[in-house]
Design goal:
This protein is of the alpha/beta class. Helix content is 28%, strand content 19%. The chain has one domain (3-249): 3-Layer(aba) Sandwich (Rossmann fold). The protein has helices at 27-36, 52-64, 79-85, 96-105, 109-118, 128-131, 179-187, 243-249; strands at 8-12, 41-45, 69-72, 89-91, 122-126, 160-162, 195-197, 202-207, 210-215, 219-222, 229-231. The protein has a seven-stranded mixed β-sheet with strand order 3-2-4-5-1-8-9. Strand 6 (160-162), helix 7 (179-187) and strand 7 form a beta-alpha-beta unit. The model has no long low-confidence stretch (mean pLDDT 94). One of its GO terms (biological process) is proteolysis. It catalyses: Dipeptidase E catalyzes the hydrolysis of dipeptides Asp-|-Xaa. It does not act on peptides with N-terminal Glu, Asn or Gln, nor does it cleave isoaspartyl peptides.
């Protein structure tokens, strides 16, 4: 069996959604995934924000209501060992460049890949945590406040995601570039691949070689040299996990 056949991912656009408590809208899927894997403690990676302790405290408040302990990776004397011992990993939002740089600085890329793609522990990503789970962070919305050694990310899936995807506001007088225009600029690059635009309140559930779009809204898929397409919640997105299809769609 391929190592990637054991992956279990929830890649969420954002933890916050108007009208809901943090992560409340995806709570059922989170609990189903963690309970199925007998998870009692989640390793939280707060590297996307500067104040690790406050971020950890807020995350503990969310998960404790569901009966889980949360450990902050920054509290460990050996972050690498913390990943190796983790029952599940949650990487939260913030600045994607800061997050990826810190993952590289702590030499955690290979370790997280192994735990998720080979050992099959659950991976939860929100916003920046979703960005770094993909092929690269080329399509993040964040400012490059720091520079990671590479824009290549964890590659838990072989395509990119744009969390917080926004549709153009037809009533706005703002003349700046739309989110779609910026993604299209990325697609013009020779090595670009598909980009899934996740609107708020949506997430991608990946189990092995199966991917399902879930949540409150449709998502928008951008493919090099193709017209963008809309996919409703509940759509089977497993074709995005096929590296051969991704290669073909760029021809």
């Amino acid at each position: 069996m391929s190592a990637r056949c054991v992956r279990q991912l929830l890649l969420i656009s954002s933890s916050r959604l108007d009208g809901y408590e943090p992560l409340e809208f995806v709570a059922n899927d989170i609990n189903t995934l963690l309970k199925k894997n007998n998870v009692s403690t989640v390793l939280f990676v707060p590297y996307a924000l500067k104040d690790y302790d406050t971020y950890l405290s807020n995350t503990k408040n969310i998960f404790s209501k569901w009966g889980y302990e949360v450990e902050g990776i920054h509290k460990s004397a050996n972050p690498l060992q913390a990943v190796r011992n983790a029952q599940a990993i949650f990487i939260g939002g913030g600045n994607t460049f800061r997050l990826l740089k810190t993952l590289y600085d702590n030499q955690l890329i290979d370790a997280i890949q192994k735990r998720v793609l080979q050992d099959g522990i659950p991976y939860l990503g929100s916003s920046a945590g979703t960005n770094v789970a993909t092929r690269s962070i080329h399509t993040t919305n964040d400012m490059p406040i720091v520079f990671p050694k590479s824009l290549q990310a964890l590659e838990l899936v072989p395509f990119n995601i744009n969390p917080h995807y926004l549709d153009p506001d037809t009533n706005s007088t703002h003349k700046g570039e739309t989110r779609e225009e910026r993604i299209v600029q990325y697609l013009e690059e020779a090595d670009a691949g598909p980009v899934l635009g996740l609107r708020e309140g949506t997430w991608l559930h990946v189990e092995g070689i199966k991917a399902t779009l879930k949540g409150l809204h449709a998502a928008r898929l951008f493919i090099p040299k193709k017209d963008a397409m809309e996919y409703e919640s509940g759509s089977d997105m497993s074709f995005l996990l096929d590296n051969d299809w991704i290669h073909k769609c760029k021809q």
